[in-house]
Write a structure and sequence with these properties.
By secondary structure, this protein is α/β, with parallel strands linked by helices. Helix content is 42%, strand content 19%. The strands form 5 sheets. The protein has a 6-stranded mixed β-sheet, with helices on both faces. α3 (90-108) packs antiparallel against α4 (115-133) and α17 packs antiparallel against α19.
């Protein structure tokens, strides 16, 4: 359907990706993954025809339609929600007008027996059939279903789009794309502005009604539920896995471990070849073997390891004083705005150390109850905050309180204390501020970047009640993992408002669901799809500082097994090491003997001695055999080492 052939992209002579080729087939459900900056959004723009590659082509079958939803777009303001959604059926309206003109012409004609009249009737019938196939008669119902699925109420349909926030206007654009039913949907972070109900509706739509889909998303549960193929951009190339995301994670890990072993073997082989060249470069008797190894090095293609950060960042909140046993207790708490009742009869108790989630569609009162707990707005009923509670609060508007005249690094450096000060750049890198990004001034950061920076600041504050309102917006999967682990290890209490089911799964002890003016506790687990793969622990021991990086995971041969098996393995290693040493001693002895004979052969007397030539030939054969034994012994030793 759509073919990407030998695509390459460069920015300022720096290659982003090179020689990328793959095919999107009808009904494909593809997750496009890779680290930030790998080129995912760029590839979507090229597929949408909005950006040209440095080289290569994007080919599509005739009449193939493509719909593209970017992360950011300029939206129109002159229509209502319904009018804007109806623009998705502009082609249907054109068809209606064409049918109306044909019907008028048929009604006015009287030459019923002519070929021209019969052809006119045939054209009218064909267009009417097309109209039926395109669902023209049902488009209003289809628009209503789609808008409501994405969170709009009927009362919203006649409101001007300019009255809505950017997030809600993005939903309108998404609705238009879905209504157009393109052959290929390209979606860049489609769940960023959706609540849980809309996300579930979109999952169902893609599963049951969409054609081919290629999407970029940091919502792990979403891509697990809607995609069946994963294309990874890594090291400037692509790796195509015909599996859903969680299976891809496992296969990618296995692939990377194979790469690591192959890379280490290659590095060892190259080091041995270079050592041989240096040792015997000036030995005439070794010239052939030296040249052979030089050619071998020249022909070697360096093995690359996929760009996956295997260091595990362990972040611990600073210590804080102990709070009361129940930091938050709500007794018949209610909140109204005029005649609109947001919620009433809210009764809940949050025990010290618990991690709870507030979930529900937008507008159901999650953030409102948070503001009640914070004491920012009045309410009815009784809400008790225990003694010694120190609240750390994160919301999207917290980002506006940052000092624009500080750099990203200085913003965190001013609040960091203790050992963590030596790990600031590691922490910034984990939250997508690596390299030169850490030296940017806050005033030039986007809204999403400011939110991430505000989150990092909060993680360094000594609090015992953590309240996070949509903390995973603008975070990639690696950053979410760091944040999730930090909250899991947090000794205090946490209230998390989030739609990210994967993030909440395994993190929270309770879930309170907001809806219909009520707040009810929901049983766990949250997810209905198979449980995610466990995160494999790295090797080495974690230190007790706030922030540490551990080395690569265990390689084969390390740890495990019985003590007797390990002892036997060590014996084999020692025997192999002795065999290598013995071969090297033989080689040195034979080379010395050859050197002495060659010195004698360089004299007139020696050159006349036929026995020296015989002796030289025998020693040369023995040296070649010793070299072969040495290579075999070295390979055997390498196989035994981790």
């Amino acid at each position: 359907m759509v073919s990407i052939d030998h695509l390459s992209v460069e920015f300022s002579a720096r290659p982003l990706f090179t020689d990328v080729s793959f095919v999107v087939n009808p009904k494909d459900r593809i997750a496009l993954v890779g680290k930030n900056g790998a080129g995912k959004s760029t590839l979507l723009k090229i597929m949408a025809g909005l950006q040209q590659p440095t080289s290569g082509t994007v080919s599509r079958q005739r009449d193939t339609t493509i719909g593209y939803l970017p992360q950011v777009m300029v939206l129109a303001d002159e229509r209502t929600v319904m009018e804007e959604a109806e623009t998705a059926f502009a082609h249907v309206k054109e068809l209606e007008e064409r049918i109306a003109r044909l019907e008028q012409e048929v009604a006015e004609r009287t030459d019923y027996e002519t070929d021209d009249y019969l052809q006119l009737v045939e054209r009218l019938t064909h267009e009417q059939d097309r109209y039926q196939m395109m669902g023209g008669q049902n488009r209003e119902a289809e628009i209503e279903r789609t808008l409501q699925g994405l969170g709009f109420s009927r009362n919203d349909f006649d409101r001007p789009t300019k009255e809505f926030s950017g997030g809600w206007r993005m939903r309108i654009e998404l609705a238009k794309l879905l209504l157009q039913r393109p052959d290929l949907l390209l979606l860049d972070e489609p769940t960023n502005h959706l609540d849980i109900g809309s996300i579930l509706w979109l999952e169902q739509f893609i599963q049951q009604r969409a054609n081919a889909v290629v999407l970029v998303s940091h919502d792990r549960a979403f891509i697990n539920n809607v995609t069946t193929r994963t294309i990874e951009i890594s090291c400037g190339r692509i790796n195509d896995y015909k599996v859903r995301y969680d299976q891809y994670v496992q296969l990618r890990d296995e692939r990377r471990q194979t790469q690591i072993r192959a890379y280490e073997n290659q590095q060892r082989e190259m080091a041995e070849a270079r050592d041989f060249i240096e040792r015997f470069r000036y030995k005439p008797t070794k010239s052939n073997q030296v040249q052979s190894r030089i050619k071998m090095l020249e022909k070697m293609v360096p093995i690359e390891i996929d760009e996956i950060d295997t260091s595990r960042l362990h972040l611990r909140f600073p210590p804080c004083q102990r709070s009361g046993d129940f930091p938050v207790i709500c007794d018949d708490v209610a909140k109204s705005y005029g005649s609109h009742r947001v919620f009433d009869h809210v009764n809940l108790s949050i025990r010290r150390g618990e991690k709870v989630a507030f979930m529900g569609n937008n507008g159901e009162g999650k953030s409102t109850l948070v503001k009640c707990i914070m004491g920012e707005i009045p309410f009815d009923g009784r809400l008790t905050i225990a003694q010694n509670v120190q609240i750390g609060y994160f919301a999207q508007n917290q980002a506006q309180l940052l000092d624009g005249d500080l750099t990203v690094f200085d913003t965190i450096d001013r609040v960091a204390r203790g050992d963590i000060r030596t790990k600031i750049r590691d922490l910034l890198g984990a939250f997508m501020f690596g390299g030169e990004e850490s030296d940017k001034f806050v005033r030039v950061l986007s809204g999403g970047e400011r939110s991430r920076l505000a989150m990092i600041r909060l993680l360094l504050e000594p609090v015992n009640l953590l309240i996070l309102d949509e903390p995973t917006n603008h975070l990639d999967m690696a950053s979410k993992d760091v944040l999730k682990q930090a909250i899991q290890q947090f000794d205090g209490t946490a209230i998390i408002v989030s739609h990210d089911r994967y993030f909440l799964d395994g993190l929270v002890d309770k879930v309170y669901v907001f809806g219909g003016g009520k707040v009810r506790e929901q049983t766990l687990p949250l997810q209905t799809h198979p449980q995610p793969l466990p995160v494999r622990e790295g090797s080495g021991n974690s230190s007790e500082v706030d922030l540490v990086s551990t080395p690569l995971p265990h390689r084969e041969g390390q740890g495990g097994g019985s003590a007797s098996a390990w002892k036997e393995h060590q014996k084999q290693v020692r025997r192999a090491e002795k065999a290598v040493a013995d071969c090297e001693a033989d080689i040195e002895r034979l080379e010395q003997a050859l050197s002495e004979i060659e010195t004698r052969l360089s004299t007139p007397e020696g050159a006349a001695d036929a026995s020296l030539f015989t002796r030289h030939g025998a020693l040369r054969s023995q040296l070649d055999e010793a070299m072969e034994r040495w290579e075999q012994a070295s390979e055997a030793l390498s196989a035994l080492q981790p």
